[in-house]
Each structure stands twice: as structure tokens, then as C-alpha cells.
Model the fold of this input.
Amino acid sequence: MHVKIVTQKIDTEKLIKLVEADSVGAIDVFLGTVRNNANGKNVLSLEYHCYEAMAQKKLEEIVTQCYKNFEVEKIAVEHRTGHLKIGEVSVVIAVSSPHRAASFEACRFVIETIKKSVPIWKKEYFEGGEIWVEGYSPEV
Amino acid sequence: MKVKVLFFAIYKELAGTSKIELEIPENTNGNGLLEILETKFPELKKLRNVGKLAVNLNYVPLETVLSNGDEIAFIAPVSGG
Done:
């Protein structure tokens, strides 16, 4: 398992390398990118903040859950924080598995669960203001 | 007893600080701590009923009784990814 919160550009190739194995027949990669619009507004950039120790722990829990739920071989996840420009990559998830279905499902599980429960927040900067994006309230 | 409270994102902006150490009465729970924090940082009242409680890196119910040395954070709805 490779799980990391980073402040610099994520090296997608490195994450793919980390999940390679002779026993796998599929590698699925998800990239989250910064979009230039939200709710009809032109977004100029995003700023990600996180509770690093807890985000790291929650990400590790999600990946552990993934190994239990799906027939996957290796998983690598990095989430970037700080100020990101339009088009930059905020999160990369790479999953390898013997057969492709498990990689697709696990990849989706990781990103959906990140959005629901990992303590990371983004602020949108747009023309004329800034706002904290209100996402999901984690289940307790 | 003493606890450490961390503030992130909107909580950090409204509290105007990222961390405080607080002396609180024994048997204080999450709701009780929130009341203490709202007295200290009135702006946090804007977030009433918004945050989830995290104690020592885990989400727990607001009724959870706190212990000496706990690391506490209130977690606004998350928006990572």
C-alpha cells in the first residue's frame, strides 16, 4: 500500500510503477483535476487544506477496506494539498488486479470514499470572491 | 484536564487560529467542548450543527466524553478529491 498526502505535483507514472506486478492483468488509474467552473461560476483556482494525520489514517483505512472488498493486487494513492491551478491534478489513484473489473470497482470505491470521509477541504477562488466548498458530512 | 483542539478550513478561519490547548472540566463531552469554544470564539456559532467530532483521528459521536490529552477537531463537511 502506498498512501501519501503531498504538496508538490503528483508523479502519476511513479504511482503506476508502484502497482505493477507480473500477476496483474489490469491497472486502473483515476486522476482528479481542477475544473474551471462550479455552480455557474468561473473558478480561477482551488486551495486544498487537510488535517494531515487524520487524512493519512483515513486513506489507509479506505485502502485496507479495498483489499478486503475487491480482488486487487496493489493500490497507490496520493492527494495533493495547497493552491492548485485549473487543470492541475489533485488526486491520483492507481489500482492493479488480476482482472479488470476489480480495478475499476476499487478505484471508484477509493475516490467516492475520499469525497465522503477524508478530512480534506477545498476553497474555490472565483472572479469576485472565494468560498469553502461544502461537500459531504462524514458519517459517525 | 487538558485537551488540544485543532482548527481546519472554515473552522480555522472563523476561530482565527489553528490550534489551542484548553483546560476543561472532567466529563466534558463534545457538545460541552463546543459550547466552551463558542464562548471563546463567538464566530464559531455560525457552524453550529455543521461539524462532526474527531477525537484522536477518529470520528466519534458528539456525546463522547473527552479525556485528558485528547486531540480534538471539528470536521466541516469534507470536499476532497
Notes: The interface with chain B takes residues 32, 48-51, 53-55, 57, 79, 90-91, 111, 114-123, 132-140 of chain A (CB under 8 Å). The helical segments of chain A are 12-19, 52-69, 100-117. The mean pLDDT of chain A is 96.
